[in-house]
Design brief:
Length: 161
């Protein structure tokens, strides 16, 4: 996959697999991702941003400190700000976080469901798609200027529908 079309297809697949939304921060440098895709409900994005929750979010903290997958229910002891129960009020009742680091670049993502927890197979399928997106956007110089511009545009569209 080397084009924005393939990435768009992957993001569309992820939307189908994560019914109440997701956030994917690709190639994080310090605390800033090169690309950010969010499909969480807009009221949640607004609440989260307005209250500056990113630095207290146990999913983000875990993702910076670990590689792999963790279900949100397993982060309850670290959720001193009550972010996960608050997210549940916005239809994100179940979730998991996936953090990967490959070729010197870290990406962090979380996926949510409104009614049923993700199966192990669903988690594996989602992580495989995130791996593809991570790998295909790893080298900005390998992407055409047009593709980079399209990715930035998609990032805005997914985050601010």
């Amino acid at each position: 996959m080397d084009s924005s079309t393939g990435i768009r297809e992957c993001l569309s697949d992820l939307m189908g697999l994560s019914q109440s939304g997701f956030a994917i921060a690709l190639h994080i440098k310090f605390t800033t991702p090169t690309y950010l895709f969010q499909t969480y409900p807009k009221p949640w994005i607004d609440y989260y941003s307005h209250n500056g929750l990113v630095m207290r979010d146990p999913t983000v903290i875990w993702g910076f400190d670990n590689i792999g997958v963790i279900r949100w229910q397993d982060l309850s002891n670290e959720d001193t700000a009550g972010i996960i129960p608050e997210a549940s009020k916005y239809g994100m009742k179940f979730g998991f976080t996936y953090s990967l680091e490959r070729s010197g670049s870290r990406s962090l993502s979380s996926f949510t469901s409104p009614g049923d927890d993700f199966t192990d197979q669903e988690i594996a399928d989602i992580c495989a798609i995130v791996d593809k997106v991570h790998d295909s956007t790893l080298s900005l110089t390998a992407l055409s200027a047009e593709t980079r511009a399209e990715l930035k545009r998609m990032s805005i569209i997914f985050t601010h529908p």
